[in-house]
Structure formats: structure tokens, C-alpha cells
Design brief:
The chain is α+β, with helices and mostly antiparallel strands. It has 15 helices and 25 strands. The strands form 6 sheets. The chain has an 11-stranded mixed sheet, sandwiched between helices. The chain is globular and about 85 Å long. The protein binds one RNA strand through α2, β11, β14, α11 and α12.
RNA sequence: CGGGGCGUAGCGCAGCCUGGUUAGCGCACUUGACUGGGGGUCAAGGGGCCGGAGGUUCAAAUCCUCUCGCCCCGACCA
């Protein structure tokens, strides 16, 4: 096709990083804010994706008994310092407000990098009895982490996310919550984003600052690197003790609560882009595509413009009634221009309606990933379109999963391991690791590959650490990561 | 923060080394006509304090200093 020559997107094979930025620009998702370091402006088409993500996740959170609330953006600096590991983890990347109302503040505020501390403070006031537990709260918010190096959606100084914070009467219940939310993230990633993920436990060095255990979902991007797409933390009683969040149990004894926190961010959009998109631009799963069907009227010299427009409008209405989001693109551009634009914006399908179609009682349809157009009779058009979208959603997931499987390998020797990660290369590698921080650090140092997680669903397979030779029970997942 | 690259019209770039009157090109934009099934054609237009601040000079997009931002590679991280 002639698409390649007309494309304004750097091919993946030529420069993957540039491709990623080109897709975002051509897809009209976002742009660097420039006037605010490391920040981005999420444009309407990008924000529409986020809104769809929010809606789906929010429903899942509510179905599992969580309630939304909102806590202050500014956190007293002393709060951050109450949990020792938490301070160490976040101090380097805090933005601090020292002045307000024209005066220097007695105590500076930090702009929240995450809200465990301020929420801990309020949990302390809200929780008195075991009858107040579990307390299941979620917050949709913006947070700020002053990162050294930023990339749109994947790592920006300010980003949007949701953070769940829960308090429980015992550790078992908290652990259950941690797993429940991890699995919800995995389900969302696979069913909505069509992005297959590996659920696993983080090693100590990758753990959230202040957590007993961190679990994550890890997705593979098209360049073989891993993206940590969501995390769920078992905070134990660490924050409970730091903020003195206690309750009286049935026996009248005072205990510290057991807490969890879990979050996903606008980074998911970066994952969406790098999972499905191609050299022609965005490819979006129908469930998250702001526009599922782009309707393009085709006008000719002697045709009745109104007749064509009204036929397009009618189809749009029908689709809308079916819950399918369609736009009728009546702008005064040539059809070819619109084709490219909607392809770059990731619309899963487009239909064209011109004079010849009206005569034949049909439309021309083309899926985002297809080369050829196919005629579709107007009879039960909605049904056919819905069926196509459903199939497309499944196909994207299968395609991504196949790609991941093809780039996944078991490795038993360190020489082979180093070879796989040579240069900028990355894949998903399952290998045996002896569980020591030293081995983990050595591998990272020498290959840039890290342990993404200790997979939960990986079968036991006794073996020997590829470095130390020590006996192990199962393989862990290695990859370079974003 | 270390190494590298780059800021000139909305986007992509040339000009800078070797200073010189009105700062160019492609795409995009505006108006009109012809067009319209894969990024149309022709014609006429609009848009720049050359990222910012200082300095050198008769003269700065160009040379010097500082600064801000972006991109790439590291270290840190959702």
C-alpha cells in the first residue's frame, strides 16, 4: 500500500523511541508541556482513553466494595518522614511547597508523590473498632514525582492515577485484598486493554518503599522490554504503626491495622500504545477506543450531498443506540486524508458511504489492520459491526499474547542469558535465581536486565541458580524494563 | 545528575563554521475556483521580536557567557 510513503511516523525498526513519540503526536494523544519540566498535556483524544480506563476500573473497584474519596494534594513534610523506608524511597523525588499566601510556611508541604501518609493520618481518626474494618478507599488523583528522566505517559513528573488504600483487622484479610486487586488489574489489562500480563511478586529491591511485599502485573512491549503496569502492596502494619492507626478487637485489645495500597496510572496508556500500535499509528482495542467507528461520507461532483450525509447520520444514530461510539466525519477534507487521520488515531474500523453504496444499499468497511475494504450490506449493519469489534478485541489480545510467547524463553546458563540481553535487546526470560540480592544486583549490573517478578502462576520447577548454582524451586522472570 | 544531540512560522527543517540591508524551504493554515472511493490541483494570501537573559561588535539567528526546555544513552522510578 501507499501508506508507508505517506506516513509521518518513524518505523519501529528504525527508531523505536521516536516511533513511540510519533504515534502519540500523530494520534493526537498528548504533547510535552515544555513550560513545566517533565510534564505533559493530555489532549482530548488521549484523555478520552483515560476516561474509559477510569470508568471500567472504577466499576470493578465498586463491585468489590471500595468507595471513592479525596485527600489533600499537599502533605505536611513531617508525615512523609514518619515511615523510615518511605522517606528514603521518596525523598529524592519530592517537590516541596515552602511559601504560601506571601509568607514562608512554618512547615513545608510536599506535593503528594503517593498518599499513604496523609491517608494513614485520617485512617487513624476514622478507625476505632474492628467494626470499622475493613475500610476500603480509593482515590482518583494526580501525583508528582520529580523524576530525572521523563517519557510521555511512561514517566512524567505529574501523572494521573488511582490509589487504593485499605485497612484490615488481620494480615490474612489484607493479603487477600492485595491478591484481589492484583487480579482485578490483570483482568482489566487482558479484557479491556487486550494486553496480556504476568502476575508476580517483586523482589526486595523492587519493593514499594515501606511495603512488606509488592506484587505487580508485567506486560511485554513490542521491543521485548517489560512494563510494570500496576502494583498492589501489602503494607503490613508499617504505616499503621507510623500513624498509630489502631482498633479494638473483639477481646477489647488494641491492635494496629493491616494496610494495603494499589495503583495504576496514565502509564497504562503508554502500555496500550506499545502493545498494539504499528508503523501507521495507534491501534486501540475497541473497548477503550474513544471512536470505534469512523464514518466517512464520500461526495462526488453530481451527487446529492444531503442524501449521503443523512445516510451517514442514520448509521451513526443506529450505532449509538447499540452503544457503539461512531463519528461522522463531515469535514471538508479529501477522503484519503480522513482515512489516514482515523488510522493514526486508532479507530478500530471505518465505514465509507458514497453514491455507489447508496445505490447498492451497502457501505464499504475497512478494519484498522486490514489491507482491503469489504462491502457490507446495510441489513443488520449494527450486528455486523458489533461482531467485528468483538472479534477485533479478541484478535488484538491473541496477537499480543502470541508475540509475547514468541519472545519468551527459558534459559539455564549465564552465558546464554548475557547473549539474549546484549546491546539494547530484551525478551522475557525465565531463569533460576538463588534468591540473593547479590546475584540480582550482579545480573542487573552486567546485563541491565532485572527480575520483573517472581511469577505467581509459574509451575514449580526445581533447578539451579544460573550464577551461584544453588538449588532453586522455580524460575523467575527477567527482562529489561521501562 | 553524567555523556551525547537539539531549540529558527502550527509541524519538520535549511541558514550559523566564515557576523552584513527584506531570514528561507516543505508541509500545514486562510480565501476562491475546480475537485472528491487512499494524504488533490491551480491561483492569491497570512503567519517569525531565530527558546530566554546578558555580553562582544558600527552590525548578532550566526561569536562568547549564563539560563530554560526537549530528545537519546546511563543511574532512579508507576
Amino acid at each position: 500500500m501507499s501508506q508507508q510513503s505517506a506516513s509521518r511516523i518513524t518505523p519501529r525498526a528504525e527508531d523505536y523511541s521516536r516511533w513511540y513519540l510519533d504515534v502519540i503526536r500523530q494520534g493526537d494523544l498528548a504533547e510535552p508541556a515544555e513550560v513545566v519540566k517533565g510534564a505533559m498535556v493530555i489532549k482530548p483524544h488521549g484523555f478520552a482513553i483515560w476516561e474509559k480506563i477510569q470508568r471500567a476500573l472504577d466499576d470493578m473497584f465498586k463491585e468489590t466494595g471500595h468507595q471513592n474519596a479525596y485527600f489533600p494534594l499537599l502533605i505536611p513534610e513531617s508525615f512523609i518522614k514518619k515511615e523510615a523506608e518511605h522517606v528514603d524511597g521518596f525523598s529524592p523525588e519530592l517537590a516541596v511547597v515552602t511559601h504560601a499566601g506571601g509568607k514562608e510556611l512554618e512547615e513545608p508541604y510536599v506535593i503528594r508523590p503517593t498518599s499513604e501518609t496523609i491517608i494513614g493520618h485520617f485512617f487513624q481518626r476514622w478507625i476505632e473498632s474492628y467494626r470499622d474494618l475493613p475500610l476500603l478507599i480509593n482515590q482518583w488523583a494526580n501525583v508528582m514525582r520529580w523524576e530525572l528522566r521523563t517519557r510521555m505517559f511512561l514517566r512524567t513528573s505529574e501523572f494521573l492515577w488511582q490509589e487504593g488504600h485499605t485497612a484490615h483487622a488481620n494480615h490474612a484479610e489484607a493479603k487477600e485484598e492485595v491478591q484481589r486487586m492484583l487480579r482485578i488489574y490483570a483482568r482489566f489489562a487482558e479484557e479491556w486493554m487486550a494486553m496480556p500480563v504476568i502476575c508476580g511478586e517483586k523482589t526486595a529491591s523492587e519493593r514499594f518503599a515501606g511495603a512488606l511485599e509488592t506484587y505487580s502485573i508485567e506486560a511485554m512491549m513490542q521491543d521485548g522490554k517489560a512494563l510494570q503496569a500496576g502494583t498492589s502492596h501489602d503494607l503490613g502494619q508499617n504505616f499503621g504503626k507510623a500513624f498509630d492507626v489502631t482498633f479494638q478487637n473483639e477481646k477489647g485489645e488494641s491492635e494496629h491495622v493491616w494496610q494495603t495500597s494499589w495503583g495504576v496510572s496514565t502509564r497504562l496508556i503508554g502500555g496500550l500504545i506499545m502493545t498494539h500500535s504499528d508503523d501507521n499509528g495507534l491501534v486501540l482495542p475497541p473497548k477503550l477506543a474513544p471512536v470505534q467507528v469512523a464514518i466517512i461520507p464520500i461526495l462526488a461532483k453530481n451527487c446529492d450531498e444531503n442524501q449521503i450525509f443523512s445516510a451517514c447520520d442514520k448509521i451513526q444514530e443506529e450505532l449509538k443506540a447499540e452503544g457503539i461510539s461512531a463519528v461522522c466525519d463531515k469535514r471538508d477534507y479529501k477522503p484519503g486524508y480522513k482515512y489516514h487521520e482515523w488510522e493514526q488515531k486508532g479507530a478500530p474500523m471505518r465505514i465509507e458511504i458514497g453514491p455507489r453504496d447508496l445505490e447498492k444499499n451497502q457501505v464499504m468497511m475497512k478494519g484498522r489492520l486490514e489491507q482491503e475494504k469489504t462491502p457490507l450490506s446495510m441489513d443488520n449493519l449494527r450486528g455486523k459491526i458489533q461482531a467485528y469489534l468483538d472479534k477485533y478485541q479478541t484478535m488484538l489480545f491473541e496477537r499480543a499474547k502470541t508475540r509475547r510467547e514468541e519472545s519468551t524463553i527459558n534459559i539455564d546458563t549465564y552465558d546464554e542469558f548475557k547473549n539474549v540481553f546484549a546491546g539494547q535487546n530484551s525478551r522475557f526470560v525465565y531463569a533460576h535465581w538463588d534468591g540473593s540480592a547479590e546475584t540480582e544486583a550482579k545480573i542487573k549490573e552486567e546485563t541491565k536486565a532485572t527480575i520483573r517478578c517472581i511469577p505467581l502462576d509459574q509451575p514449580e520447577e526445581p533447578g539451579h541458580c544460573m550464577i551461584s548454582g544453588a538449588p532453586t524451586k522455580k524460575r523467575v522472570l527477567f527482562a529489561k524494563s521501562y
